[in-house]
Amino acid sequence: MNSISIIIPVLNEAASINKLLNHLLVNSSPSIIHELIIVDGGSRDLTRDIVCAFFQKTIIGKQKIKCHLIRSPRGRSKQMNAGANAATGGILYFLHADSFPPSNFDKLIANEVKKGNLAGCFRLQFKHSHWWLKLSSWLTQFNFRVCRGGDQSQFITKQLFENIGGFDENYVIYEDNILISELYKRKQFTVINKKLFTSARRFESKGIWRLQYHFWMIYYKKWRGNSANELFDYYKKYIS
After folding, report:
1. pLDDT per position as a tens digit, 184-224
2. What DSSP string describes 177-232?
3. Residues 148 and 233 in one domain
4. Do both 105 and 221 map to the same domain?
5. What is the pLDDT of residues 149-159, one digit of tens each?
6. Residue-number span of the structural domain to which 19 is assigned
7. Alpha helices by DSSP H, the chain
């Protein structure tokens, strides 16, 4: 029940994926981590080659963690669902390729599940010194729906994930928030008060206030009842 399947959707993540995979092995225990599942959505860089080389090294090093690289249609909701379908651990841990969980993250997750907290995340810390990103990071320690996002990672028991129906594949973006909303409705969400560090690369490339404004607009449009396609059209026009 408390074995963890780590699921990482990737698309052209050659710059960071090897560092993340090494980080996961160093900061976890093979007695808890059941498997690593990388779900590629059609990378055109060296992502797949790097993952394969890492997995081969892991096998040679006699690590007890199973490693899988699978393909899926592009889109995080589809990729994460594909990873969940392939997973055999009792706990699913969805992680972005540029997010680095804290030391002993696996034990922290397993302990929460043992206590009856079947889903949750870590608090987040952006790798950036801008005051707004620092404030946004600080707020993630509180267990309020408005403070949540996919960058914080997501653990959930496989049974609960399947009961909810997984990620809604109608959503190309906002899929994390849809699942999180379902968990808050069920009063099944906890925040582990340890920091996960994540890249601010998109804020750096788009501009912090410009990108934050467009994120707020997407949340507002969802609140107003805009469809999944309308949200994606806005994302493509102003963010992608």
Report:
1. 999 999 999 999 999 999 999 999 999 999 999 999 999 99
2. HHHHHHHHHTT--EEEEEEEEE--HHHHHH-HHHHHHHHHHHHHHHHHT--HHHHH
3. no
4. no
5. 878 999 999 99
6. 4-199
7. 17-26, 47-60, 76-86, 105-114, 131-139, 158-164, 175-185, 201-206, 208-224, 228-238
